[in-house]
Amino acid sequence: SQRVKVKQILSADKTHYEVTVKGWVRSFRNNQFIALNDGSTNNNLQIVIAAENTDPALLKRITTGAAISATGEIIPSLGKGQKVELKASTLEILGDCDPEKYPLQLKNKPSLEYLREIAHLRFRTNTFGAIFRVRHTLAFAVHKFFNDRGFVYLHTPIITASDAEGAGEMFRVTSLDLKNPPLTPAGDIDFKEDFFGRSTNLTVSGQLEGELGAMAFGDIYTFGPTFRAENSNTARHLAEFWMIEPEMAFYELKDNMDLAEAFIKYVIGYALEHNREDLEFLAQRLIEEEKQKPQQERSEMGLVEKLEFVLNNEFMRLTYTDAIHILKDSKPNKNKKFQYLIEEWGADLQSEHERYLVEKHFKKPVILTDYPKAIKSFYMKQNEDGKTVKAMDILFPGIGEIVGGSQREENYDKLVARMEELHLPVEEMSWYLDTRRYGSCPHSGFGLGFERLVLFVTGMGNIRDVIPFPRTPKSAEF
Ligand code: ATP
Ligand code: MG
Ligand code: MG
Ligand code: MG
């Protein structure tokens, strides 16, 4: 008979039919009951074997972590905790797992830190099973949202000579033989020769290329790996992360904000609807974690309630200037967790400021708009005041910045003037300026860090725990 997923068996309630299941042993009790996990759900299928008919040599090999195949009838279960079970007529060990060596067997309740050290095995735990199934559901929802609205999924390049003008620190990509490199007249390595005559790096953002697509398809999005040589070791930054970057022609800043808010709500709602089981598991995990904290530090809302709250409430929208007033009026709290640092209008917000606004002041997601032009990129559309630009950042509780976006400057002369002011290479970026030369129009877009979204939805605290293979200064083995 065909292999059936455990999730399907458990959710059907159907009995008296024959199946084959394959997966990994989570536990084995009384020489009779196997809890089998196949990765489709954290709920295990109980397999009952008739011990008296089974070869003792085979029973010995049923250990935690071993891969097995079982065929038999699905019957109602008399035991507590499951409605159905599999009465095995045949059982086969596909891959042994030595209980003396298996790290997940040796450590009882392994910590997240320990699991990060054995990241190659952590998928096999319930916590990481839930996290990565939720991540999958969210990724699927991203494509569904845009596809349903007629956006074209445009793949922007990974290797590029464009540095997106300061979006982040770059990783150089070179084909040079560094043992015998070409040299400049001054004797330095001539990195201009990196990639057949161009200096190249890994992409820090697909936005500029995305704008080219928006000027032809109207609405596009990218969803791909993004690289920043962050050496900051924070719980919110990775060197390799996935960014979702929609870009829309004929959109002004307000349309952009409306889309971003609708998008975030859609994907969260999709996860609640299509993967409630794993979210409830993660919610329960958080409750256990919260119990370790002193009463006053525990959060008021559970994970599912927190997600539902975001779905059901409008995001707060205000300007950077208004936010600065609020921050200036606020007092640093007593235990100095929030040190008030902003003295002047014009300074960039630190994540503690962002979190103060979201978590303490408004207690909901916030969209900040109209930032000082000096702290934002050259391509943002300038406001009439001459000081601010049509930027928007979305700030989330527990995360800080989750989205950065703007309406783009569509006027060729204004854009070039700003580039010259910032000493940007106008000539080299002629390809980009063509969007403003030929049929320019108001357009907008944003970038959302996918892992920050997954962090929020899963309630995890460290970004390394929501990407399968984290790339940070400390981990790049596999
Ligand atoms: P931050 O201020 O947190 O460093 P940023 O302003 O440098 O972020 P943007 O260039 O605006 O980031 O990129 C758009 C989005 O990409 C951010 O809002 C964030 O969600 C995400 N992002 C940026 N850098 C990283 C990173 N190193 N790791 C994970 N996500 C990131
Ligand atoms: Mg940054
Ligand atoms: Mg930022
Ligand atoms: Mg930003």
From TrEMBL:
It is found in: Cytoplasm. InterPro entries: Aa-tRNA-synt_II, aa-tRNA-synth_II, aa-tRNA-synth_II/BPL/LPL, Asn-tRNA-ligase, Asp/Asn-tRNA-synth_IIb, NA-bd_OB-fold, NA-bd_OB_tRNA. Pfam families: tRNA-synt_2, tRNA_anti-codon. It comes from the Bacteria. Keywords: Aminoacyl-tRNA synthetase, ATP-binding, Cytoplasm, Ligase, Nucleotide-binding, Protein biosynthesis. GO terms for molecular function: asparagine-tRNA ligase activity. It catalyses: tRNA(Asn) + L-asparagine + ATP = L-asparaginyl-tRNA(Asn) + AMP + diphosphate + H(+). CDD domains: AsxRS_core (cd00776), EcAsnRS_like_N (cd04318). PROSITE patterns: AA_TRNA_LIGASE_II (PS50862). Residues 132-468 form the Aminoacyl-transfer RNA synthetases class-II family profile domain. Its EC number is 6.1.1.22. Homodimer. Belongs to the class-II aminoacyl-tRNA synthetase family. This is Asparagine--tRNA ligase. It comes from Chitinophaga defluvii. The gene is asnS.
